[in-house]
Specification:
Elements (H helix, E strand, L loop, with lengths): L1 H7 L8 H13 L20 H15 L6
Helix pairs in contact: 2-3
């Protein structure tokens, strides 16, 4: 399955809030200055119910991104 390959190779990040924070932190460590230039987001639009999609976006904005703001 394509999604599994993306995750296994580190191109896709999935999991709990803490899993995602750890994965983003690991990506930051790959850069000499510790700063990511960009991060592409996909929230399974059309694959999950709208309520779940909105919850995922809210969690990302309130529980994950604040950890990485300067």
């Amino acid at each position: 399955e394509a999604t599994k390959r993306l995750v296994d190779q580190g191109y896709g990040i999935v999991g709990t809030v803490d899993d995602i924070k750890r994965s983003i932190e690991a990506l930051k460590r790959c850069h000499a200055d510790g700063d990511l230039e960009w991060l592409g987001l996909s929230f399974d639009q059309g694959m999950v119910p709208l309520e779940e999609l909105l919850e995922q976006i809210e969690w990302f904005g309130t529980k994950i991104m604040p950890e990485f703001q300067d």
